Amino acid sequence: MDQSHIRNFCIIAHIDHGKSTLADRIIEKTGLLTSREMQEQVLDNMDLERERGITIKSQAVRTIYKAKNGEEYTFNLIDTPGHVDFNYEVSRSLAACDGAILVVDAAQGIEAQTLANVYLALDHDLDVFPVINKIDLPSAEPDRVINEIEDVIGIEAMDAPKISAKMGIGIDDVLEAVVSKIPAPSGDANKPLKALIFDSIYDSYKGVIVFFRMMDGKVSRGTKVRMMATGATAEVVEVGTFGAGQFIPCEELSAGMVGYLTASIKNVRDTMVGDTITDDERPCDEALPGYKKVQSMVFCGMYPADGAKYPDLRDALEKLQLNDASLNYEPETSIALGFGFRCGFLGLLHLEIIQERLEREYNLDLVTTAPSVVYKVYKTNGEVIDLTNPTNLPDPSEIEHMEEPIVSAEIMVTKDFVGPIMDLCQTRRGRYLSMEYIEETRALLKYELPLNEIIYDFFDALKSRSKGYASFDYELKGYEQSKLVKLDILVNKEEVDALSFIVHADSAYERGRKMCEKLKDEIPRHLFEIPIQAAVGGKVIARETVKAMRKDVLAKCYGGDITRKKKLLEKQKEGKKRMRQIGNVEIPQKAFMSVLKLSDD
Amino acid sequence: MEIYVHIPFCEKKCNYCDFLSGPADPMVRQMYVNALCAEIAQRSKDIGKGEKITTVYFGGGTPSVLENVQIGVIMAALREHFNISKDAEITIEVNPKSARDKLQFLNGLGFNRLSIGMQSVHRSELELLGRIHSFEEFDECFIDARDAGFTNISVDVMTAIPGQTEQMLSATLDKVLSYSPEHISAYSLTIERGTPFYEQFGDIEGPVVGEENERKLYWLTVDKLKAKGYKHYEISNFAKPGFESRHNTGYWNRVHYLGLGLGASSCLPAPEGDERSRNTTSLEAYLGNPLTKEESNVLTRQEMIEETMYLGLRMMDGVDTDAFERQFGVTVRSLYADVIDDLAAQGLVYEGGSSLSLTDLGIDYGNHVFAQFLS
Fold first, then answer.
1. pLDDT 10s digits, B302-324
2. How far is Cα B260 from Cα B267, in angstroms, rounded to an integer?
3. How many whole angstroms separate alpha carbon B53 and alpha carbon B74?
4. A-B contacts at Cβ under 8 angstroms
5. What's the predicted TM-score (pTM) here?
6. Cα–Cα separations (whole angstroms), residue B213 to B192, B218, B219, B220, B369
7. Which chain A residues are within 8 Å of B267, Cβ to Cβ?
8. Do B205 and A556 make contact, defined as CB atoms within 8 angstroms?
């Protein structure tokens, strides 16, 4: 295939601006599938993704487009995840492209993720052309949005296609623009093999299927490939390109193409996103830039509700990890919860997705503990610990100081809500950096925030304080020293290790109080009174009490009472919750995630 | 099958009473008796003479406010249209004040069980409750009832009356016991919406005397009556051996019953499951057409199972798990193992060889236990 007729591109957009719908239309219009075969949102083939409307894993599809000039072009549309948790994956997908379609909602205009993604694309030297979507909406203001794009991002937008992906309006213009505005790949097929991995999945028959973009050289069955970062080598069994939802084997892939290979690789950890594939016998000089080892940002404990299911949970995690190199886990034990795993995730969304998949696909009943970031503990003996489980915090006397991860955050908000959002950042220990008005009515706020202040409910708080108008993006900046303490929770005088969490000393009292209040609501009444206490270093700083269950029995229940009294009893009956026995107290499983709901409002 | 007859009249409504009842003039009472007889004639057609009636219960209100002849007419209608068993238990509720001169007549009509609403021996408590009678009148009534030939008499006592001390309740119980009634019902006062007490004590959670106090008075009653040889056979009911109320026990064992009169409830066999229904609660509607229904609901198998559990648990002998299995074709355990284990671990229920019953602690938390058997 002649490289000049290949277009490798992606679609970037803020969440809900219509990325997936446009992708569907492009696939539909290029004739790969008939309308009848089109499932809605072909690219997102995991159920979960469909429900949440977010793309979790990067995927690609190859379609054939017959342009108005009569020539046939191969389009490789590479889908990218749309959440800050998956920033690194996004950057690798972008690196596999030569250009990007920027989708902007004609009513909402530019949002924080729009900007973040555009800058990311420009960083990767992609040619970006904008598309104004949702012009069918009554509130659409395409001209305003075009001006905004030119003013704020500084890219040409005057001739941006005005489309409605949902209604199928203007799709042809988009396809022509892909041909004319996105450059053809420029690799050299005669150079040694050099290809960029942007994703990989595990298939129980074929082993790992590696998704990659050919930069230079060729690859075919029999090529002995080497992953330059992990050092893994394997002999290629099959290469091919992506249909919509299926793999189409071919003889050979060469520079500029996008495709997959299988090579009886057993573990996705050998084929990490961002790694460079080369020919083991004729390697390229140097790997492609940008490879990073995936680091878990958020950790939590996951325990089977039924202790006997521990092996099932282990098997399930093992299987999920085959497909998800960013999921980490190792066994741990909790006094309260028994045997389980400390699991590491890219972010809270990633955590929630894994949790849901474990519960749904593997039918596991889980108890999940409060998420924690990774703290650095500098001990007086010179040792430095990466603390992922609050329970493992050494005795305060052994701690020299602690550091916590800090992120740089960009928040875009309409000017009416600047005040409330600044308040929010302030209460979350944010450090104000700057504010600029990107247009008359909208401001871009820059803050540095401790990661542990934003992993819980920051996004929700942001939405509620801005009536949904704020958008948000962040990246890890580094570690900073901080005054941190471990907050312990005692239920009926017994410390529940799984409820402990690390908190800044200044907010310990406030968090402890809220935690007690929350648990008071979560824990049902027992036959006895249950004190709930929050303590720091053995000192109780807050207390609530779950009152004992009321002694109550219907004195009379005769013929005329039966129907009426049943209604009364039904009211009394609380929904049967999943409980965990701690000492002689039953704690609902969801209480272990209570710390997530300590909202400020 | 059992029959319940509702007489919605009394001389004066008591301060705690939320039953469908009230004073009415003689003409309305007569119209009611006519309507009731019409209902008896009509509804008996669905039942037929083949069905043996094991118990009849006249409740209210105060059935004894009716004239002798009116009660006689109703009784005659029942006997004409239903096959009332020779050894049927036939009960009538009476007020000590209005019953005296009717007792002989009632006994002659076939009533063989009397339920006397005494409530308390203390004038102050009777006044607070809004009762129209005195203890002296109860005394006369009880003696007259024995003289009239009643050998099965039940006395109502009320506990947890505002201001009631253990001494006061003890005095009441001692007095009642001195008459040696066959049966005693002891009810903890509950404040119901729409009663004068509700206005007075407001919408409080729990008993007026306080939760712990109410339980103390309850257990004082249980201990005292048991010590005197009464069997504690249901949460609020006590009887000398063999004198348990057959009619009421039928409710807790889910025996079918036909309710006649204003607002009376029925539980009758229907093709898919038992049907619970209630007559209209509007006196005007009832007088216009005594077949007017207010609500009716065919129970699912699940609902019948739930009722069997929470009604059965009211009895101290508990749910007969063998009978349960015979009726539903599954064991109680197969449906409720988790619930039972959980409750047993907390000491709230006791599992016998063929029964499941409340423990003493379980009685105190009865509603919580009952609720666990609802889905």
1. 999 999 999 999 999 999 999 99
2. 12
3. 15
4. 88
5. 0.70
6. 19, 8, 10, 10, 21
7. 559, 562
8. no
Contacts of B126 (CB under 8 A, 6+ apart): B119, B120, B133, B134, B135
Residue ranges in A428-526 assigned as alpha helix (H) = 451-454, 458-465, 508-522
Are B187 and A556 a contacting pair at CB < 8 A? yes
Q: Which CB contacts under 8 angstroms, 24+ apart, belong to B41-46? A: B41/B77, B41/B81, B42/B290, B42/B291, B43/B258, B43/B260, B43/B291, B44/B81, B44/B82, B46/B268
Residues of chain B contacting A563 with CB distance shorter than 8 Å: 265, 276, 278, 295, 297
CB contact under 8 Å between A559 and B4, yes or no, is yes
Distance CA A118, CA B359 (A): 70
In angstroms, the CA A76 to CA A260 distance is 12
Looking at the DSSP assignment, which residues form a beta bridge with residue B22? B9
Q: Do A555 and B267 touch (CB under 8 A)?
A: no
Query: Does B168 score more than 90 pLDDT?
Result: yes
Residue-level pLDDT at A2 = 81
3 state SS of A254: strand
Contact (CB<8Å) A553/B363: yes
Chain B contacts of A549, Cβ < 8 Å? 365, 368
Of B46, B48, B42, the residue nearest B82 (C-alpha): B48
Judged against a pLDDT cut of 60, whether residue B208 lies above it is answered with: yes
Contact at CB, A527 and B206, closer than 8 angstroms: no
CA atoms of B1 and B256, how far apart (whole Å): 5
As a whole number of Å, the end-to-end CA separation of chain A is: 59
Q: Which domains does chain B have, with CATH numbers?
A: 2-251 (3.20.20.70), 300-375 (1.10.10.920)
Look at A589 and A409; give whichever has higher pLDDT.
A409
Q: Which residues of A touch B (CB under 8 A)?
A: 527, 549-560, 562-563, 566, 568-570, 572-573
Q: What does the pLDDT read at residue A558? A: 93
B365 closest CB neighbour out of A551, A557, A568: A551
A494-495 vs A258-262, strand pairing mode: unpaired
pLDDT digits (tens, 9 = 90+) for A243-254: 766 788 889 999
Q: What is the mean pLDDT of residues A146-159?
A: 90
Contact A6, A185 (CB under 8 A): yes
CB contact under 8 A, A555 and B190: yes
Residue A128 gets the label, from left (phi > 0), alpha (psi -120 to 50) or beta, of beta
* Collapsed DSSP state (helix, strand, coil) of residue A474: strand
Neighboring chain A residues of B276 at a CB cutoff of 8 Å: 562-563
Structure tokens at A484: 């941190």
> Do residues A543 and B174 touch, judged by C-beta distance below 8 A?
no
Measure CB to CB from residue B367 to each of A552, A559, A563 and give the nearest one. A552
CA distance A545 to B44: 58
Burial call A515-536: b when 16+ CB within 10 Å, e when fewer: bbbbbbebbeebeeebebbbbb
* Chain B nearest C-alpha distance from A452 (Å): 39
Please give the residue of chain B at the shortest CA–CA distance from A560: B265
Contact assignment for A558 to B307 by CB distance below 8 Å: no
- Whether pLDDT at A222 is above 90: yes
Residues A572, B307: C-beta atoms closer than 8 Å: no
Q: Give the CA distances from residue B120 to residues B117, B135, B138, B173, B196, in Å, rounded to whole numbers and listed in that order.
A: 9, 8, 10, 8, 19
Decide if pLDDT at A50 tops 50: no
Residues pairing with A77 in the sheet: A9, A61
Can you tell me the ipTM of this complex? Answer: 0.91
Backbone angles phi, psi at A182, to 5 degrees: -100, 130
Of A553, A562, A570, the CB nearest to B307: A562
Whether A562 sits inside 8 A of B251 (CB atoms) is yes
Q: Which of A555, A556, A557 sits opposite B311 (nearest CB)?
A: A557
